[in-house]
DNA sequence: TTGTACGCGTTATCAA
DNA sequence: TTGATAACGCGTACAA
């Protein structure tokens, strides 16, 4: 009941082990005749070469590790699909580790990848820069990530220099600008932003503030404790708290915003929920823009205008870049993709 | 710049490679003195044992493969978290393969796992039963899956016998019954079901029909082409199509349902959207129950009553079961967990 | 083209 | 307890 080895295949095909090895790596210098014999033997024996042995003997394992923050994040799921696509087509298998769980188990994801002898790593979540450097294999950063001063990616990411660890991401600040431009184009001037913690939210918020100032509007940011629907709903009330209402037409009070940019789709839903609870008509009295173009944005009940980063494509490019780093000598180059606005029914011109 | 090996550690600690190996597997039969010396050497050399070599030399790789249908499915993501938890704590690393992508790349996920020499597989998606059998390693089925007549799990799954491949799942038919009982308890009698393709939807629908008949009500099932919000919305209109309305009070027309059980949360949202488009008040004129207790069910805007299967726990148990099969002689036993109803605001007593 | 020998980093099996 | 040595399955020369 033992697994067949390359020796068994060679014997059955009546050739040497070397030849079998050559067929496996489909070398061009084997006669069609012998090749067929070998392939037939492999089929008959139901032979599958061992990646373990190949990795041990060879110079690479044809596997890469992906460090992920949170599996429930749909952004990652999409990016992961793109990653898998470009990596699998290059013959690389993928193993994943999420930082949350590993932290819970007090297991450094990078240590796991070291033990696995991966040929490269994709950083889609926080990982110790020092650990990555010690790993000694190519790495790419996938998506926006908090970049500390000592980050492996350096500071030049996207600014023209080619860092040791390229950053492949969507330009999320540009996404924030897009949202503001869209709302301003509809005629809105009092546009608020519901933001939250994390690097992505930070970039999106930054783009929002930039564009607001560019247009001569006053940025108005409210930050939630988390980037969730509930957290956004909890703080959205502040948007109306000090504002002029029918009951409170005091001087000095600020006019309430007519539009809100939420840094992700669930938070946009939270804002809509809060608005409805406060008796404001949606979308007539409050336009809302989300971010990520998640499935829920397309729900008829919401029909959310949102910013799409095409994370699948970003993931695919990250995979390509990593493979080129592993296989070639090409110097890695960071990429930043421009997002686009998906217009739906949650944004309309302001009332009056 | 080469990686340190077990030889280096042995030399530095002044012991044999065998002893280092024993320390690695923390065997009880090594003197505390030597052990400390070895550990110190490992630390100083920044040594990480190679899983490749260990797998090649040993009898197992301490890795398991997970076959997944669709990564975007939140159910899997939750279950995966549970799986990772129970497997990682046993020292097993995980590699995943989704059938959709692999099919696209014409790559049999099981073949990949064979090459990786995994110690076991978790089937959370469709996989060729024959391929699994040929793999020759323990396997568990995670979640409800279409069971063909020749399925590896056999037919006895959950019916008292212990099949070769145990099934660890939530009792989804019971979930359907729960939903009906809840609605009936509120006073509803005309309860419809919006179902779709797939094993899970089938089980949920079956539970619905069972319970409806038990209560003496007439089952009323409408099936969507997919299990998505859009597909559900597209067919929900049928629920009111032939029904008695103010404009069409013809004899023989059927009364419209006062409640709907959708086989998942997005579909429930689709039903609500369709109801609103048809001018029916929600939830006053139409109560809706979803399934899976996905994050969106908790959104204030929806506040969906839903059935929760606690997939994380199911995943965790699947991991435990697989580990016990790999390591022990315990005979595997299928498990079926009872779901629970999460009551929110989308279900109310019928009008009048 | 083919055969041969060796190395890859561990575990497993015996001896000591 | 410890240590030597043989697998483990394959890549990579190198020589034939």
Report the largest inter-chain contact.
A-B, 59 and 58 residues
Portion of residues in helices of chain A? 40-55%
The CATH architecture designation of the largest domain in chain A is 3-Layer(aba) Sandwich
Count of domain modules of chain A:
3
Secondary structure class of chain A reads alpha/beta
SSE order of chain A, as H and E? HHHHEHEHHEHEEHEHEHHEHEEHEE
Strand tally of chain A: 12
**Biggest sheet of chain A: strands side by side, in what order?**
2-1-3-4-5-11
| β-sheet strand percentage of chain A | 5-15%
- First-residue to last-residue Cα separation of chain A: 80 Å
Largest sheet of chain A: 6 strands, parallel
CATH homology superfamily of the largest domain in chain A: Response regulator
The parts of chain A where pLDDT drops under 50 for at least 5 residues are: 148-162
Number of helices of chain A: 14
CATH fold name of the largest domain in chain A, please? Rossmann fold
User: How large, in whole angstroms, is the Cα Rg of chain A?
Assistant: 26 Å
InterPro entries (chains A, B): HTH_LacI (IPR000843), LacI/GalR-like_sensor (IPR046335), Lambda_DNA-bd_dom_sf (IPR010982), Peripla_BP_I (IPR028082)
Domain HTH lacI-type (chains A, B): 4-58
Protein name (chains A, B): LacI family transcriptional regulator
Pfam families (chains A, B): LacI, Peripla_BP_3
């Amino acid at each position: 009941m033992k697994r067949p080895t390359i020796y068994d295949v060679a014997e059955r095909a009546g050739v040497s082990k070397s030849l079998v090895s050559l067929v496996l790596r489909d070398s061009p210098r084997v006669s069609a005749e012998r090749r067929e014999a070998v392939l037939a033997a492999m089929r008959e024996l139901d032979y599958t070469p061992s990646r373990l042995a190949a990795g041990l003997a060879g110079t690479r394992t044809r596997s890469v590790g992906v460090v992920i923050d949170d599996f429930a994040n749909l952004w990652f799921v999409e990016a992961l699909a793109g990653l898998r696509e470009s990596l699998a087509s290059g013959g690389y298998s993928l193993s994943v580790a999420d930082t949350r769980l590993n932290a819970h188990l007090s297991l450094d994801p990078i240590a796991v990848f070291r033990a696995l002898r991966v040929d490269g790593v994709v950083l889609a979540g926080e990982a110790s820069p020092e650990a990555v450097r010690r790993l000694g294999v190519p790495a790419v950063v996938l998506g926006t990530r908090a970049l500390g001063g000592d980050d492996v990616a350096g500071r030049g990411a996207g600014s023209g220099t080619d860092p040791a660890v390229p950053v492949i991401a969507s330009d999320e600040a540009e996404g924030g600008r897009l949202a503001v431009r869209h709302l301003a184009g509809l005629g809105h001037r009092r546009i608020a932003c519901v933001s939250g913690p994390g690097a992505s939210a930070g970039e999106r918020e930054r783009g929002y503030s930039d564009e607001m100032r560019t247009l001569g509007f006053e940025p108005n940011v409210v930050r939630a404790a988390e980037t969730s629907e509930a957290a956004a709903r909890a703080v959205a009330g502040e948007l109306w708290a000090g504002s002029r209402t029918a009951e409170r037409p005091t001087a000095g009070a600020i006019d309430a915003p007519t539009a809100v940019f939420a840094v992700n789709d669930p938070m946009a839903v939270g804002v809509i929920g809060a608005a409805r609870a406060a008796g404001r008509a949606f979308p007539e009295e409050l336009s809302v823009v989300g971010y990520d173009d998640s499935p829920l944005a397309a729900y008829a009940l919401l029909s959310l205008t949102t910013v799409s980063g095409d994370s699948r494509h970003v993931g695919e490019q990250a995979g390509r870049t990593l493979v080129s780093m592993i296989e070639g000598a090409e110097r890695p180059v960071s990429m930043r993709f421009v997002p686009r606005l998906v217009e739906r029914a949650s944004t309309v011109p302001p009332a009056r």
